Amino acid sequence: MPPSAPVPSRPLVRDRSADERRTAGLLDAARAASGTRVLAVRADAAPVRGDALVGVPVSALDEVLEWAFLGRGPAGEAVLLAVVPDQADIALPPDAAWSRLREIGGDLVESDASILRTAVALAGWLRDAPFCPACGTRTLTRDAGWARHCPGCGREHFPRTDPAVIVLVVSEDGRRVLLGANAAWGGARYSCFAGFAEAGESLEEAVAREVAEEANVVLRDVEYRGSQVWPYPRSLMLGFRARVEHDADAREDGEEIVEVRWFTRDELGAAMRGESGVQLPGPASIARRLIDDWYEETR
Question: What are the structural domains, with CATH classification, of the chain?
């Protein structure tokens, strides 16, 4: 390899080794091992250099709120999650910096992006749900940070995941897509329509309800397109594409969605290149992936 060629990034975690989580004393043994690497998570941020996560040694951490086992690295070393306080001051390796999942997720190599999504989701649960929701007793972590046991009532608790649907709406002729500007974003960014599946509701029912509520359109040809973990706070986003029955029915609800707008492929391209005032979802989101897929398929 020429000296000037970039060195390929190695994934922080090669194998999640889920079968090891029940091993007694796993976390203590890993913290004591010299080769162990730690992914520190501060709120939704972790140390990043370039397009890769950066692990730190156990000795670099002074205060850790919770620990968990993330798997094994390229050389078989243990990789731990350390949930640290939001203002934790940790000495990072040269050229590494704290980066938020929302901002860096789309730029990381996919293996590291996946681990960061997992780590942020698990860290949020470990940090925010220490008490048993049934009896209020403080729980004890089990399975190397992946479960909690309540000594009060004996219940076992696991990280919660909430299913949500997100839909790219396509026009009758397939030549335009309908995006909405959410009031929470100040009406400046256009994205797909999304919402949580309600109790007793199928995903298909959730798709139809959310889009009808937010954009006033009836859908057909609903097609599943993929999923993404989105730990804000604990969502599993299930992506769909669907076609409208009647383009002219599109209308914003005026509360959550302040404007709906049809976009041609050329208009999306201009927004992607920063040549218009339209802001699209960030590259780390499944919303952007749904938009990009349609854009590429219509070339």
Answer: 18-128 (3.90.79), 162-297 (3.90.79.10)
Contact indicator for 16, 69 with CB cutoff of 8 Å = no
Type of residue found at 81: L
Q: How would you write the pLDDT of the chain (299 residues) with one tens digit per residue?
A: 344 434 446 799 999 999 999 999 999 999 999 999 999 999 999 999 999 999 999 999 999 999 999 999 999 999 999 999 998 889 999 999 999 999 999 899 999 999 999 999 999 999 999 999 999 999 999 999 999 999 999 999 999 999 999 999 999 999 999 999 999 888 789 999 999 999 999 999 999 999 999 999 999 999 999 999 999 989 999 999 999 999 999 999 999 999 999 999 999 999 999 999 899 999 999 999 999 999 999 98
Taking the C-alpha atoms of residue 106 and residue 13, their distance in angstroms, rounded to an integer, is 18
Q: Is 274 exposed, middle or buried (0-12, 13-18, 19+ CB in 10 A)?
A: exposed
